[in-house]
Every structure is written in structure tokens, then in C-alpha cells.
Amino acid sequence: MKRKHKLYSRPKRPFDKVRIVEEGEIKTEFGLKNKKEIWRADAKVKVMRRKAKDLIKAEPAEQKAFFGRLNKIGINVKSISDVLSLDKKDYLNRRLQTVIYKKGLASTVKTARQMIVHKKVMVDGKIINIPSYVVPLELEDKITIKSKKVAK
């Protein structure tokens, strides 16, 4: 059995005031539970950047396939420089919690998170209860709120 590795890394300087303030603003803007979610998004973006650096010398077909995968999840990139300029906010904007709030299905991001956790949100007819679910572009317009059953 393979050993499961961490999905994030903690900051090198734990008491850096500038970073703490910035993470606090991001946490409130996106309605995150804790800073671990920010670090996880940052790790995902670092992986994307690393793959882009590896693809600099690769064939254009491989690069196009990589850009296609990123465009499918809603991260709009056309070149390697676009991938290298990605920020954790670009990734956090694709989370289900943020998409629901931006579409106006929830009044706040915290409300959006609660609706997801309480299984009130359906994506393409399937209930998803993970706020960090990355919504592909093709499913973005298929997000609905589960209707309440009427008692007779």
C-alpha cells in the first residue's frame, strides 16, 4: 500500500505578520474554515507551476493538452507564462463554495459552505457535500439547490 503524502506544506516562517494578515483576508473573502485550505490551494498551484516548467522543453502537443486540462477546470491559460503567473486566488475562485456565492445562489460564502455541507447543493443532478470541490466549466451552469419536499 502506498503511503499517503501531505497535500500541503506549512509556511517556513510561522509568525510572519504580513503573511498572517494576507491569509486572514483570503480566509474571510472565500469563507474558508482554516488556513490549511489556503495552504492546500497554494500547493495545488505550485504543482501546476512545476508541471508548466517541465513542459517548457516539451512538444507543443503536450503543452496544449496541459492547457486544455487547466481550461477545463476553469483556469484560463494560453501559455506557460500564464500558468507561471497563477495565484492561489485563481484556484480558490474555482471551488464549489465560491462558485455558488458568485452565482447568487447563497447570500454569503459562509452560507454557501453550510448549504454544501448540509447536502442542499446538486451539481449535474448529484449531491456534492465537499466545499473544496473544483467545479469544471461545463458543470458550472448545472449547479442547483435541492428543492424542499412539501409535507402533505
What is the chain-wise order of helices and strands? HHHHHHHEEE
Radius of gyration over C-alpha positions, nearest whole angstrom:
18 Å
Mean pLDDT: 94
Instruction: Compute the number of structural domains.
Output: 2
Shape estimate:
globular
Structural class: mainly alpha
Query: What is the terminal separation in angstroms?
Result: 52 Å
Spatial sequence of strands, sheet with the most strands: 2-1-3
What portion of residues is helical?
Answer: 40-55%
Number of strands: 3
Molecular structure report:
Helix content is 49%, strand content 5%. It is mainly α and 152 residues long. It has two domains: 76 residues, no CATH class; 50 residues, Structural Genomics Hypothetical 15.5 Kd Protein In mrcA-pckA Intergenic Region, Chain A (Roll), CATH 3.10.290.10. Helix 6 packs across helix 7. The longest helix is centred in the N-terminal third of the chain and has 20 residues. The mean pLDDT is 94.
Q: What order do the helices and strands come in, and which of them pair?
A:
Blueprint: H1 17-30, H2 35-54, H3 60-72, H4 80-84, H5 88-92, H6 96-103, H7 109-117, E1 121-123, E2 126-127, E3 143-145
Helix pairs in contact: 6-7
Kindly list the characteristics that best describe this protein.
3-stranded antiparallel β-sheet; Structural Genomics Hypothetical 15.5 Kd Protein In mrcA-pckA Intergenic Region, Chain A; 49% helix; mainly alpha; 152 residues
